[in-house]
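Please fill in the sequence for the structure shown.

STRUCTURE ENCODING:
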């Protein structure tokens, strides 16, 4: 179903698929993907090993909200089969193109996390990074995850962390720059998404505490929550501050 949040998400990430602003090479070329990979994992050095340690080797893995496909390429190198979805056709196209360039058999398509076009119990793993906090009913997306996962299948999901230094930085900016005079917090917060400040319709951005994140996945087993990416003013801070990182990473099993 089309809603304001979904049309805003489609507008935002059709215009600016996440990470593409870090690549100068022509879109869809091998150099373009290499530049995105390099910059993503230079900015988030903690991510590749965490992702590799999670992907079920040889399993069938779904990625929800694949964007330009950087993480999906890592997943496709380990999993036996992959599928990717994104609400924005630009992201689905970029991921499909990357799979083809790398000679991988997976498919990327346009679809909604809240209503996925897959049969029940068809995946051994589900991955989603920075996506479910942009959809109007994250709990419906999580129910869909449950539906398409086989019993025993695992997931890894990253959400924005409410009690992070980055969220605190945004709150300070909101107050000090007197933005509260002209904007609601929920309209200001989406400016953290690249290019969103220039759009009239901005994506929905929800923030999660560790407890909120755990509650969202309360139906699953072995749910573990960790925070990653302690960052402030664009700089990654020492790992000791991980507790206040920008991502809540949730793992668990159906
Ligand atoms: C911040 S980007 C993250 C993309 C990618 N996972 C990454 O980390 O680079 C959020 C992505 O989620 C997608 N998205 C938002 N709501 C969605 C929904 N309901 N169903 C599927 N994709 C969605 C957007 O189109 C966008 O590509």
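FILLED IN BY: designer on duty
SEQUENCE:
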């Amino acid at each position: 179903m089309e809603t304001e949040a979904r049309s805003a998400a489609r507008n935002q990430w059709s215009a600016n698929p996440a990470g593409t602003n870090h690549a100068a090479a022509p879109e869809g070329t091998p150099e373009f993907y290499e530049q995105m990979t390099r910059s993503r994992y230079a900015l988030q050095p903690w991510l590749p090993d965490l992702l590799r340690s999670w992907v079920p080797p040889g399993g069938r893995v779904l990625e929800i909200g694949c964007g330009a496909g950087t993480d999906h390429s890592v997943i496709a190198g380990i999993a036996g089969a992959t599928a990717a979805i994104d609400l924005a056709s630009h992201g689905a196209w970029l991921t499909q193109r990357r799979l083809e360039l790398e000679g991988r058999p997976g498919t990327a398509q346009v679809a909604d996390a809240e209503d996925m076009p897959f049969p029940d119990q068809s995946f051994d793993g589900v991955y989603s990074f920075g996506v479910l906090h942009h959809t109007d009913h994250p709990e419906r997306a999580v129910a869909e995850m449950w539906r398409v996962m086989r019993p025993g299948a695992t997931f890894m999901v990253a959400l924005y962390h409410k009690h992070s230094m980055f969220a605190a930085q945004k709150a300070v900016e909101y107050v000090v720059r007197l933005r509260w005079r002209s904007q609601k917090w929920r309209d200001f917060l989406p400016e953290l998404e690249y290019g969103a400040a220039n759009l009239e319709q901005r994506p929905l951005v929800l923030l999660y505490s560790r407890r909120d994140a755990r509650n969202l996945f309360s139906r699953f087993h072995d749910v573990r929550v960790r925070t990653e990416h302690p960052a402030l003013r664009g700089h990654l801070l020492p790992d000791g501050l991980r507790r206040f990182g920008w991502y809540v990473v949730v793992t668990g099993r159906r």
